[in-house]
């Protein structure tokens, strides 16, 4: 069962000290992260160093210029049985039934010679990209952005480690650029007139939704989105709306960090309200590597608490990925 968060307060945290060397400044950031993760489960990270204006421009241009044939040719297996990919590729809209569409890509380090690719390991795929002539520089931008947001996420993990009472390098060897299973999703929510009623879900409280309640299957999620209010978090006082930001990344814990900390930092249950507006949602789902094994703990454990068993990250991700699809469908 999802953990009900105690509030919907979403602070903005200046994370710049995490790039530096001042331990007191880092400790101050860590205390703010702890409070946010124990509160609404969300915070905005400011002073992150990524050009979000260019990010939006490139993704908007990509979606504007993709043809229906290109989308089908690049669609994942759920939409195109001739494509074996289940993660990297296009996630198509279905006229009259599903309006959201997206492009997902994985670690640029996953080439044909990568050990996990050679072994045919699940959840690992060599990225296939749109035609370079039709979409010049999109691949180079995408690979650059992946590395930038991955490195930002590693910096954020320093703050999370300190917030959990661990050394700041606690996650360093478990989340590496060479082996991370992390993914970028470039999601487009369209404006449609008329908007198909069949594409709108209804929550138990009667709220009209674009995507139903869910927990992110990730370590942490690093999200940039168009400044259109749409997200809600489930709290002890019911569903509460989250504020927006046109400059900062929205950060939350995924289910793995909840599992690793025995819900000291739980994954917040959240959902997407129906809003008929053209907008982007650009999450980066941070993952460890296939063979990473971390021993679950609880910062307040005195030795009498039953802790979750250790599992390999690849197994955890594969199980969570399939469970999310079974509950909410293929986005």
Written description of the protein model:
The structure is a single chain. The protein has 331 residues and is an alpha+beta fold. The chain has a single domain (12-328), classed as B-lactam Antibiotic, Isopenicillin N Synthase, Chain (Jelly Rolls, Sandwich). It has helices spanning 23-37, 52-65, 68-73, 115-118, 138-163, 255-260, 313-328, and strands at 12-14, 42-46, 89-91, 101-105, 183-189, 201-202, 208-214, 220-225, 231-235, 238-241, 249-253, 270-273, 279-286. It has an eight-stranded mixed β-sheet with strand order 1-2-11-8-13-5-4-3. α1 (23-37) links the parallel β1 and β2 (42-46). α1 crosses α5 (138-163).
Please report which band the strand proportion falls in: under 5%, 5-15%, 15-25%, 25-35%, 35-45% or over 45%: 15-25%
Report mean pLDDT, rounded to a whole number.
Answer: 96
**Shape descriptor:** globular
Count of alpha/pi helices: 7
Strand order across the largest sheet: 1-2-11-8-13-5-4-3
Corresponding CATH superfamily: B-lactam Antibiotic, Isopenicillin N Synthase, Chain
CATH architecture: Sandwich
* Number of strand elements: 13
First-last Cα distance: 22 Å
Sheet with the most strands, sense and barrel status: 8 strands, mixed
- What fold name stands as the CATH topology? Jelly Rolls
What is the H-and-E element order? EHEHHEEHHEEEEEEEHEEH
**Proportion of helical residues:** 25-40%
- Number of structurally distinct domains: 1
Task: Using the coordinates above, name the CATH class.
Answer: Mainly Beta
If you compute it from the alpha carbons, what radius of gyration comes out, rounded to the nearest whole angstrom? 19 Å
Structural class: alpha+beta
């Amino acid at each position: 069962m999802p953990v009900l968060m105690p509030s919907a307060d979403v602070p903005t945290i200046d994370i710049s000290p995490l790039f530096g060397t001042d331990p007191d400044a880092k400790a101050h950031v860590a205390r703010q992260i702890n409070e946010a993760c124990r509160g609404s489960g969300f915070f905005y990270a400011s002073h992150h160093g990524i050009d979000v204006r260019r990010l939006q421009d490139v993704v908007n241009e990509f979606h504007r210029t993709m043809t229906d044939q290109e989308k089908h040719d690049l669609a994942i297996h759920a939409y195109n049985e001739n494509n074996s990919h289940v993660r990297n590729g296009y996630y198509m809209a279905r006229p009259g039934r599903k309006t959201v569409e997206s492009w997902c890509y994985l670690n640029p380090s996953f080439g044909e010679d990568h050990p996990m690719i050679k072994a045919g390991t699940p959840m690992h795929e060599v990225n296939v990209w749109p035609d370079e002539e039709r979409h010049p520089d999109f691949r180079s931008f995408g690979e650059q952005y992946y590395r930038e947001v991955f490195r930002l996420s590693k910096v954020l993990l320093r703050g999370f480690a300190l917030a959990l009472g661990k050394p700041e390098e606690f996650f360093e060897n478990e989340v590496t650029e060479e082996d991370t299973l992390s993914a970028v999703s470039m999601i487009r929510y369209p404006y449609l007139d008329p908007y198909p009623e069949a594409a709108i879900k209804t929550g138990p409280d009667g709220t009209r939704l674009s995507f139903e309640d869910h927990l992110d299957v990730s370590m942490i999620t690093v999200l940039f989105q168009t400044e259109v209010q749409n997200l809600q978090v489930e709290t002890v006082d019911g569903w509460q709306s989250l504020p927006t930001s046109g400059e900062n990344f929205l950060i939350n814990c995924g289910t793995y960090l909840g599992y690793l900390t025995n819900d000291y930092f739980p994954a917040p249950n959240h959902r997407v309200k129906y809003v008929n507006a053209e907008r982007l949602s650009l999450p980066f789902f941070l993952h460890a590597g296939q063979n990473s094994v971390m021993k679950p703990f609880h910062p307040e454990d005195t030795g009498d608490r039953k802790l979750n068993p250790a599992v390999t990250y690849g197994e955890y991700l594969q199980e969570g990925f399939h469970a999310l699809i079974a509950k909410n469908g293929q986005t």
